[in-house]
Structures are given as C-alpha cells and as structure tokens.
Amino acid sequence: MADNSDMEAAIQFQKQFCNLIILNLKERFPESGMVSCFKLLAPASFPKAKLQLRTYGLLEIEILASFYGEEKICRDGGKLDALVNIEQLRREFQLFKAQALYEWQDQNARDTWVSIRKIQCKQVNTQI
C-alpha cells in the first residue's frame, strides 16, 4: 500500500489556503457585506420557484456592480479603472442564472465554478 502522506499534505494545504482567502475577504469587506453577495453564484442557493429566479440576486448583483463597476481613487491619488461593465454584468448574471438552474442546480459555488472551468478547458483544447 502506497503512503498517502503527500496527498494528505496537499489537501491540508488547500484547506488552509481557502480558509486564508475567506479570512482575507472578510477583513477586506467587513462592513459592506460584499462577501455574502457572492452567494448568488451558488445555484444551490437559488429559489426553488422558477418565477422567483427572475428577481433573485438583483440586490446583491447591484452591490457587486457598484463596487467593481466604478473607477476607484487610490490613496496615492492614482486611479483604478472599473473592473466590469455594469450593464454587461447585469445581462450575464441573468444568463448565468438560467444556465445554472438547469446545469448546476444543486451545486455550491465552488463546484459550479469547477464545472465552468472544465467547460472552458474543453473549449480551449478543441480550438487548438
């Protein structure tokens, strides 16, 4: 039987890394509740009634859009451009909800994005 210590160490490292990311996000966005807004990217959190899906996450996407879709002024006076186009974000969020409801209905955010990444990798490999 092979020694699984390398695999166990890798898993421990991944867990510690994820926990540090979560801690850093909570420290960076303590008062805004921005971290909780990302729950809208987990299809498992979608409402069960399809009629409610149309309005699901609109408040959260607006919070994220206002943060990431506006230019920022740095402490040193420099400027950071907006990271997203707000109108495009709103459209793509509606498309994401429709696709996620059918393809990743019971998945959490992590598993959903792993699935999306696999699709992207397949698309890249077929284009090469």
What are the main properties of this structure?
globular; mainly alpha; 62% helix; 3% strand; 128 residues; two-stranded antiparallel sheet; 2 domains; 6 helices
β-strand percent reads: under 5%
Strand order, main sheet: write it out.
Answer: 1-2
Number of spatially distinct domains: 2
**Distinct helical segment count:** 6
Overall geometry = globular
Average pLDDT figure: 85
Secondary-structure content class? mainly alpha
Compressed to H and E, one letter per element, the order equals HHHHEEHH
Number of E-type strands? 2
Radius of gyration in whole Å, from Cα? 18 Å
Uncertain segments of ≥5 residues (pLDDT<50)?
none
What does this structure look like?
- With 128 residues, the protein is mainly alpha-helical.
- It has 2 domains: 1-30; 36-127, no CATH class.
- It contains 6 helices and 2 strands.
- It has a two-stranded antiparallel sheet with strand order 1-2.
- Helix 4 packs across helix 5.
Secondary structure layout plus pairing:
Blueprint (H helix, E strand, L loop, with lengths): L4 H24 L5 H4 L12 H4 L4 H11 L3 E2 L5 E2 L5 H18 L5 H19 L1
Antiparallel strand pairs: 1-2
Helix pairs in contact: 4-5
Write a brief structural summary.
This protein has 128 residues and is mainly alpha-helical.
